[in-house]
Amino acid sequence: MAGILLQCVVVAVFAFGVCWGLPNQSRWARTEALDSKGQVRLHWTPRITKGDIQFLFVAPSTGWVGVGFSPNGGMIGADMVIGGIRNGSPYFRDCHSVGNTLPDVDIQQDYELVRAMENGTHTWLHFSRKINTTDLLQDYQITNEAVDIIWAYGERDPRIGEEPAYHALNRGERSLSILDAIVDVGQEEASADPSKNGTEI
Protein backbone atom coordinates (compact mmCIF):
# COMPACT_ATOMS: atom_id res chain seq x y z
CA MET A 1 0.00 0.00 0.00
CA ALA A 2 2.82 2.38 0.92
CA GLY A 3 4.52 1.59 -2.39
CA ILE A 4 1.41 2.44 -4.38
CA LEU A 5 0.97 5.68 -2.44
CA LEU A 6 4.58 6.64 -3.12
CA GLN A 7 4.14 6.00 -6.86
CA CYS A 8 1.04 8.20 -6.91
CA VAL A 9 2.91 11.01 -5.16
CA VAL A 10 5.80 10.76 -7.63
CA VAL A 11 3.44 10.87 -10.63
CA ALA A 12 1.56 13.84 -9.17
CA VAL A 13 4.74 15.79 -8.48
CA PHE A 14 6.06 15.06 -11.99
CA ALA A 15 2.80 16.15 -13.62
CA PHE A 16 2.74 19.33 -11.57
CA GLY A 17 6.35 20.12 -12.43
CA VAL A 18 5.67 19.71 -16.15
CA CYS A 19 2.29 21.38 -16.38
CA TRP A 20 2.14 24.15 -13.78
CA GLY A 21 3.65 26.75 -16.05
CA LEU A 22 1.55 26.22 -19.16
CA PRO A 23 -0.61 29.19 -20.21
CA ASN A 24 -4.36 29.41 -20.07
CA GLN A 25 -5.28 27.81 -23.40
CA SER A 26 -8.44 29.92 -23.68
CA ARG A 27 -6.26 33.02 -24.16
CA TRP A 28 -4.86 31.68 -27.44
CA ALA A 29 -6.72 30.91 -30.63
CA ARG A 30 -5.02 27.54 -30.90
CA THR A 31 -2.61 25.34 -28.97
CA GLU A 32 -0.95 22.15 -30.16
CA ALA A 33 1.50 19.59 -28.80
CA LEU A 34 4.44 19.18 -31.16
CA ASP A 35 5.87 16.02 -29.58
CA SER A 36 4.33 12.70 -28.58
CA LYS A 37 4.68 13.42 -24.84
CA GLY A 38 3.01 16.83 -24.96
CA GLN A 39 5.97 18.61 -23.42
CA VAL A 40 6.83 20.67 -26.52
CA ARG A 41 3.91 22.96 -27.28
CA LEU A 42 3.04 25.84 -29.57
CA HIS A 43 0.29 28.36 -28.81
CA TRP A 44 -0.64 31.05 -31.33
CA THR A 45 -3.13 33.71 -32.31
CA PRO A 46 -3.27 35.26 -35.81
CA ARG A 47 -4.34 38.91 -35.59
CA ILE A 48 -5.45 39.67 -39.11
CA THR A 49 -6.42 43.30 -38.53
CA LYS A 50 -2.97 43.96 -37.03
CA GLY A 51 -1.25 41.86 -39.70
CA ASP A 52 0.72 39.73 -37.28
CA ILE A 53 0.75 36.41 -35.41
CA GLN A 54 1.51 36.01 -31.72
CA PHE A 55 3.30 32.79 -30.73
CA LEU A 56 4.16 31.13 -27.44
CA PHE A 57 6.61 28.22 -27.68
CA VAL A 58 7.47 26.03 -24.69
CA ALA A 59 10.06 23.26 -24.50
CA PRO A 60 11.36 21.07 -21.63
CA SER A 61 14.82 22.60 -21.38
CA THR A 62 16.57 25.46 -19.60
CA GLY A 63 19.07 25.68 -22.46
CA TRP A 64 18.44 27.09 -25.92
CA VAL A 65 15.12 26.35 -27.66
CA GLY A 66 14.09 26.81 -31.27
CA VAL A 67 10.99 26.56 -33.44
CA GLY A 68 10.27 27.41 -37.05
CA PHE A 69 8.69 26.71 -40.40
CA SER A 70 10.01 24.26 -42.97
CA PRO A 71 8.78 23.64 -46.54
CA ASN A 72 9.83 19.98 -46.33
CA GLY A 73 10.09 19.01 -42.65
CA GLY A 74 13.86 19.39 -42.60
CA MET A 75 16.45 22.08 -42.13
CA ILE A 76 16.90 23.02 -45.79
CA GLY A 77 14.93 26.18 -46.51
CA ALA A 78 13.67 26.45 -42.93
CA ASP A 79 12.84 29.75 -41.21
CA MET A 80 13.23 29.69 -37.41
CA VAL A 81 13.83 31.50 -34.17
CA ILE A 82 16.33 30.45 -31.50
CA GLY A 83 16.39 31.84 -28.00
CA GLY A 84 16.44 31.36 -24.28
CA ILE A 85 17.60 32.98 -21.07
CA ARG A 86 21.33 33.23 -20.37
CA ASN A 87 22.60 34.50 -17.02
CA GLY A 88 19.26 36.15 -16.34
CA SER A 89 19.01 37.93 -19.70
CA PRO A 90 17.07 36.86 -22.81
CA TYR A 91 18.64 36.18 -26.18
CA PHE A 92 16.64 35.71 -29.37
CA ARG A 93 17.32 35.75 -33.09
CA ASP A 94 15.58 35.22 -36.40
CA CYS A 95 17.45 32.60 -38.46
CA HIS A 96 17.25 30.57 -41.64
CA SER A 97 18.91 27.42 -42.84
CA VAL A 98 20.35 26.51 -46.22
CA GLY A 99 21.37 22.95 -45.27
CA ASN A 100 21.80 20.43 -42.48
CA THR A 101 24.15 22.76 -40.65
CA LEU A 102 23.93 25.51 -38.05
CA PRO A 103 21.35 28.10 -39.17
CA ASP A 104 22.41 31.57 -40.28
CA VAL A 105 21.14 34.75 -38.66
CA ASP A 106 18.80 36.70 -40.96
CA ILE A 107 19.98 40.07 -42.20
CA GLN A 108 16.47 41.40 -41.63
CA GLN A 109 15.16 40.47 -38.17
CA ASP A 110 11.40 40.02 -38.60
CA TYR A 111 10.52 38.17 -35.40
CA GLU A 112 10.09 40.24 -32.23
CA LEU A 113 10.58 38.80 -28.75
CA VAL A 114 7.74 39.86 -26.46
CA ARG A 115 9.01 38.04 -23.38
CA ALA A 116 11.05 35.03 -22.32
CA MET A 117 10.69 32.93 -19.21
CA GLU A 118 12.12 29.79 -17.65
CA ASN A 119 11.69 27.75 -14.51
CA GLY A 120 13.69 24.75 -13.38
CA THR A 121 12.52 22.55 -16.26
CA HIS A 122 11.04 24.57 -19.14
CA THR A 123 11.68 27.63 -21.28
CA TRP A 124 8.99 29.83 -22.85
CA LEU A 125 9.42 32.17 -25.79
CA HIS A 126 6.58 34.58 -26.53
CA PHE A 127 7.23 36.29 -29.86
CA SER A 128 5.45 37.81 -32.83
CA ARG A 129 5.99 38.23 -36.55
CA LYS A 130 4.19 39.93 -39.40
CA ILE A 131 2.16 37.62 -41.60
CA ASN A 132 3.88 39.28 -44.56
CA THR A 133 7.42 40.13 -43.49
CA THR A 134 8.52 41.30 -46.99
CA ASP A 135 11.66 39.16 -46.58
CA LEU A 136 11.14 36.79 -49.51
CA LEU A 137 14.65 35.34 -49.35
CA GLN A 138 15.06 34.29 -45.72
CA ASP A 139 11.55 34.14 -44.19
CA TYR A 140 8.92 31.48 -44.78
CA GLN A 141 5.81 33.02 -46.33
CA ILE A 142 2.85 31.95 -44.20
CA THR A 143 -0.32 31.12 -46.15
CA ASN A 144 -3.49 29.12 -45.60
CA GLU A 145 -1.61 25.95 -46.53
CA ALA A 146 -0.30 23.55 -43.90
CA VAL A 147 3.38 23.89 -43.05
CA ASP A 148 5.84 21.66 -41.21
CA ILE A 149 6.59 23.13 -37.78
CA ILE A 150 10.10 22.06 -36.76
CA TRP A 151 11.48 22.33 -33.24
CA ALA A 152 14.62 21.54 -31.30
CA TYR A 153 16.32 22.35 -28.03
CA GLY A 154 19.70 21.98 -26.38
CA GLU A 155 20.79 21.07 -22.89
CA ARG A 156 22.52 24.39 -22.20
CA ASP A 157 22.57 27.99 -23.37
CA PRO A 158 25.40 29.03 -25.69
CA ARG A 159 27.96 31.42 -24.26
CA ILE A 160 28.14 34.91 -25.74
CA GLY A 161 29.69 34.59 -29.20
CA GLU A 162 29.15 30.83 -29.22
CA GLU A 163 26.80 28.87 -31.48
CA PRO A 164 24.11 26.63 -29.93
CA ALA A 165 25.31 23.08 -29.27
CA TYR A 166 23.89 20.21 -31.34
CA HIS A 167 20.38 19.17 -30.29
CA ALA A 168 20.98 15.41 -30.79
CA LEU A 169 17.60 13.63 -30.46
CA ASN A 170 15.82 16.68 -29.03
CA ARG A 171 14.08 17.60 -32.24
CA GLY A 172 10.90 16.92 -34.21
CA GLU A 173 8.31 18.24 -36.63
CA ARG A 174 4.56 18.37 -37.11
CA SER A 175 2.43 19.65 -39.97
CA LEU A 176 -0.04 22.37 -38.96
CA SER A 177 -2.06 25.13 -40.58
CA ILE A 178 -1.27 28.44 -38.90
CA LEU A 179 -3.90 30.75 -40.37
CA ASP A 180 -6.90 28.51 -39.71
CA ALA A 181 -7.01 29.86 -36.13
CA ILE A 182 -8.39 33.25 -37.06
CA VAL A 183 -9.46 35.07 -33.93
CA ASP A 184 -8.73 38.75 -33.48
CA VAL A 185 -8.09 39.48 -29.81
CA GLY A 186 -6.56 42.37 -27.93
CA GLN A 187 -2.87 42.59 -27.18
CA GLU A 188 -3.53 42.11 -23.48
CA GLU A 189 -5.16 38.73 -24.13
CA ALA A 190 -2.67 37.44 -26.68
CA SER A 191 0.25 38.27 -24.42
CA ALA A 192 -1.16 36.94 -21.16
CA ASP A 193 1.39 35.67 -18.67
CA PRO A 194 2.32 32.05 -19.42
CA SER A 195 3.13 31.43 -15.77
CA LYS A 196 2.91 33.09 -12.40
CA ASN A 197 6.23 31.57 -11.35
CA GLY A 198 9.74 31.13 -12.66
CA THR A 199 12.09 33.76 -14.02
CA GLU A 200 10.47 36.12 -16.51
CA ILE A 201 12.48 38.61 -18.56
Automatic annotation (TrEMBL):
One of its GO terms (biological process) is octopamine biosynthetic process. Pfam families: DOMON. GO terms for molecular function: copper ion binding; dopamine beta-monooxygenase activity. The lineage of its organism: Eukaryota, Metazoa, Ecdysozoa, Arthropoda, Crustacea. Residues 38-154 form the DOMON domain. GO terms for cellular component: extracellular space; secretory granule membrane. PROSITE patterns: DOMON. CDD domains: DOMON_DOH. PANTHER family: DBH-LIKE MONOOXYGENASE PROTEIN 2 HOMOLOG, DOPAMINE BETA HYDROXYLASE RELATED. It is found in: Membrane. Keywords: Membrane, Signal. InterPro entries: DBH-like, DOH_DOMON, DOMON_domain. Residues 1-21 form the signal peptide. This is DOMON domain-containing protein.
